[in-house]
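WARN no homologs supplied; continuing
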Amino acid sequence: MNGKCVRIMGWARSFGSAKESCESINAKVAEPMTKCDSDLLQYYLQIRGNVNQDAYIGVRYLGNGTLKYVSDETNVPFRYWNNDQSEEELSQNNSCVHLHGHNPKGLWHKKSCKSGMLFICETLLKAF
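OK structure emitted
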């Protein structure tokens, strides 16, 4: 995907554990740079057969509309929120962003980073 190799990890982990798992294979939790990247990650999740499962991506919501990439703490240049989130989900600060398995697009949700879910790792192709 755009010069990156992505791998959907098929076991549920908290976000911290997911991050460590990706780092153990010289990768990071996938960080979509565009809405198209997020849609592609969603597509890979669905064709892998995980249509009803959620998967972490490497984005954190810090509150007040602030989104940061996990690997280097830079600001995420776009928003791609799903409109059907509950008020509780929307009010959570310092939460982790994930793809919702049943969405046809790579729209984002946020949830506690302690929640167990699948996750997607990425690395540059030249690393393989």
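Residues 35-47 form the longest helix (13 residues).
OK
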